[in-house]
Each structure stands twice: as structure tokens, then as C-alpha cells.
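Render this sequence as a predicted structure.
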Amino acid sequence: MRYLMIFILSCLIVFSGCAKANQKNDNIEKTDQVEDNVDKIEPEEENKENQEEQKNGFDDQEKPKVYENDSYRNVTLTGNKGDYIVTGEARVFEGVFLYRVSDNQSYLIEDHVQLTKGAPSWSPFKLNISLSDKELPENETITLELYQNSPKDGSVIHQLLIPIPLFEQ
């Protein structure tokens, strides 16, 4: 009697395991079907986006480049002739980061930004950068540098360098 009970329990365990395996296979097949449908939908959505861009007068060449690293994401630079706007998100210690604009010889601007949230949260930011004609170099590159100072030793960490295009004077 004892062996009969063990045999019946063993059979129940084996058959319930087989039923679960069949359910997993069904789910995998359904997932494959959904992925196939997604692949069919994506090109249509891309066409809609391209049509909207054409209506708005934008194309890929006019979109600003996006910069990022571990502490900054979705950072873009727009503007010209010395007046620029930098937008993005930062995830920085105590919600503070520093920035400076350099002409590779000296710093034209040095300042800091206080965000609404500190790490580990991402917090949006917007910088307005204005450089006068006197500050603009004629043939050199200007660079925007987003960075933090290390709480341990004050060294520069999480530096993100963004080239600023030459200005029309």
C-alpha cells in the first residue's frame, strides 16, 4: 500500500511538470507571434515619424547631436553666434554639477548647477550660455565641459566634453 501511494504521487508530480512545460511552450509560441507583429508595425511607425518630420521642416541633419555618459544623458546643444542652450538630464551626487567653457587656453565661463534631485534620480537641466564677440576665438575650438568634483579628493570625475561649433562673426 505504501509503495502504491509513492508511485501515485510520483506520477502526479511527473504529469504536472509535463503540463507546465507545455504551457511554457505555448507562451513562447505566442511571444514569437507578437514579436513578428511588432516587426511588421515598426516600419509603418517609422514612416509616420518621417512624414511628421517633413511636415515640421526637420530632417536628420538639423537634429542636434545627443551626448551622454554615466552621469549625463540626452544632452543637446542648440543655438549659434555665441548664444547657446544646453538641455539634458543629470544624475549627480547631491544634485550639483559644474560646467565650464574653454577655448583650449583659458576658461571663458565657469559655474555650477543645482538640480532638484540628486543621484540616483535623474533630474532635468537647462543651461543658457552666452559668449561675447570678444570672448570668441577666431580659429580655435570651444568646448563645453560638464563634470563633478570627487567628494573624496576634489578631482574631476564624470566629465562630458561637448564641442561647440565655430561661430559666425
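Summary. The helical segments are 2-56. Residues 27-60 have pLDDT under 50 and may be disordered.
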